[in-house]
Amino acid sequence: MHDFKNDKRFKGLKPLIERALLSSPTMHNGAEMKYVQEAYDTEWVTTVGANIDELERQVSKYMGKRSVALASGTAAIHLAIKLAAEKVYQSSTGISTPNGKGYGGSMLGKRVFCSDLTFDATVNPIVYEGGEPIFIDSEYDTWNMDPEALKQAFKLYPDVKIVVLVHLYGTPAKIQEIRKICSEHKALLIEDAAESLGATVDGQPTGSFGDYGIISFNGNKIITGSMGGMLITPDEYSYNKAKKWSTQAREEALWYEHEELGYNYRMSNIVAGLIRGQWDFLETHIKSKRKIYKMYEEGLRDLPVSMNPMGIVGISNYWLSCGLIEANSMEPMVRNGRSAVYEIVDGKSCPTEILEALNIYNCEGRPIWKPMHEQPIYSGNSFVKKDGNGRAGSNAYIKMGGSVAVSSDLFNRGFCLPSDNKMKFEQQKVVIDIIHRCFR
Questions:
Q1: Distance in angstroms (rounded) separating the CA atoms of residues 140 and 306
Q2: Residue 310 to residue 429: CA distance in whole angstroms
Q3: Is residue 176 a contact partner of residue 201, using CB atoms and an 8 Å limit?
Q4: Could you give the angle at which helices 175-184 and 147-156 cross, rounded to 10 degrees?
Q5: Residue 75's closest CA among 24, 115, 34, 122?
Q6: Which of 2, 156, 253, 271 supports an S-S bond with 257, CB 3.0-4.6 Å?
Q7: Which 3 state secondary structure label does DSSP give 229?
Q8: At 287, phi and psi to the nearest 5?
Q9: Running DSSP on this structure, what letter comes out for residue 188?
Q10: Taking a C-beta distance cutoff of 8 angstroms, is the pair 300, 323 a contact?
Q11: Quick count: other Cβ atoms within 10 Å of Cβ 403?
Q12: Of the candidates 120, 170, 162, which has an alpha carbon nearest to the alpha carbon of residue 374?
C-alpha cells in the first residue's frame, strides 16, 4: 500500500472523524420500531404475522403482481429459477402438473443466460438447480446486459429458455429491448432488481417487467430490514408454489407430509416490520441518493472521470454512485486474485489508488463488481460479447476487429463511492477532494 500520509499531494488532509459509508441502513425516528414492537407485543416473533401480510400487500400493489416475502433476495432468485425451470419443462414436454404439484425437478445440464457484471448471488442459484450459467457482456450505455450480446448468445445457444437480467447500481437496463429478444426466442425473463427498487421505465417499476422479478432488502439496499427479499410472481399458481416451497414444501395434512423438496426461506415477521416501516420512505431515500450523485457529478466534472450512467433508460434510483476513469488517464495497475499493485503517475490515477486513499482517510469505497466470467469458480463457463464468444478474445483478436469485454473494462477502470443517505455535505467534499488529489 502507498504511504499516503507522507505523500505531498495529501499534505494537510486529516482522516474523517466519522466514517463516510458506502450505503448503510437509514432508520426514521421509530417508524420501523412501531411495527417491530407490534410483533413483539403480540408475540408474533415468527415467520408469519401481520407485518409479512401487509408488506406483501404493499409490494404487490406497487409492482402490480403478487409478491412473496422471503428471507433474502438470493432465496427469491432461487425460487424464480425453479419456477422458470418448471414452466420450461412443461412447455417442452407438454406434461401438465397433476393437482398443481409441479415438476420441481433439476435443471441438470440446462444453460441459462445471465448478466456478467453482477454479484454472484445472481448466478449461484442457477447452479443450485444444476444449471449452467452463460455470461452476457455489458454495454457502456447502462453498464447492464448488452442486448446485442444477448442476440449473439441466442445464435450460439438457441436452446436456452431462461435469461437472468440485473439492473446494476440502480440503473435500469434496456428492459423493453431485452424482453422483446426473450419473447422472440420464447425464453423466460427473470429480472433481478435487487439494486434498483424504486427505479422505473415508462412509469413501470423495475422488477415487474420480467416473468419473475426479484428485490432485496439487504442491509445496504435503498429500503432495508437488515435482510429479506421479495419474489414478484406472474400468476396465482407461481405465488402459491413459491409460498409452499419456501415453507419446506409442507403438504396440507395434519402431520408433516412432504412430496417435494422445500426450503426454509420465509421472512421473519420482525424483519418484515422493519421493511414495512421503511416502505413509505422509499422516495425520500431516492431523493437523498440523487442529491449525492449530483454532487459527485459536479465535483468530479473537471477530472477524467465519468459517473455511472443514470437516466439513460427510464428513471434510476441512484442507489450507488460510481466513477469510471478515462482509459488514457489510467496509471498502470495489475490485479491478481486477491490484491493489486499500481504505479503512481503524475496526472493519472487508478481505482486501487483511489480506494486505498479513501480508506486511509476513513471513507468507504469498493471496486466495481468483478465480472462473473473472470471469477475462478466460473472460469470454464461461456462468456458472450456483442461480436460472439468472449472466451476467444485476446489483444491480437481485438486488434483484428474484435471488441473488448465491456464488463472487464468497467471493472478495471471503475470504483464505487460512499453513497450513504446519512453522509454529510462536508464528508462528501472530503471524498471529492481525495479523488482530486489522486490525479495531481
A1: 11
A2: 21
A3: yes
A4: 20
A5: 122
A6: 253
A7: strand
A8: -60, -40
A9: E
A10: yes
A11: 18
A12: 120
C-alpha to C-alpha distances, 31 to 34, 145, 184, 240, 319, nearest whole angstrom:
6, 37, 46, 31, 22
Q: Nearest 5°: phi and psi at 420?
A: -75, 135
Residues forming beta bridges with residue 133, ordered by sequence position: 112
∠ CA 121-125-130, nearest 5°, is: 145
Q: Each residue's pLDDT tens digit in the chain (440 positions)?
A: 899 988 999 999 999 999 999 999 999 999 999 999 999 999 999 999 999 999 999 999 999 999 999 999 999 999 999 999 999 988 877 776 544 455 555 677 799 999 999 999 999 999 999 999 999 999 999 999 999 999 999 999 999 999 999 999 999 999 999 999 999 999 999 999 999 999 999 999 999 999 999 999 999 999 999 999 999 999 999 999 999 999 999 999 999 999 999 999 999 999 999 999 999 999 999 999 999 999 999 999 999 999 999 989 999 999 999 999 999 999 999 999 889 999 999 999 999 999 999 999 999 999 999 999 999 999 999 999 999 888 755 444 444 456 789 999 999 999 999 999 999 999 999 999 999 999 99
Max distance between CA atoms of the chain, in angstroms, equals: 74
Q: Which residue has the cell 425464453?
A: 187
**CA-to-CA distance for 297 and 375, rounded, in angstroms?**
31
Query: Are 358 and 22 spatial neighbours (Cβ–Cβ below 8 Å)?
Result: no
Asked whether the CA dihedral 46, 51, 53, 58 is positive or negative, the reply is negative
Name the strand (E) or helix (H) holding 388. strand 388-389
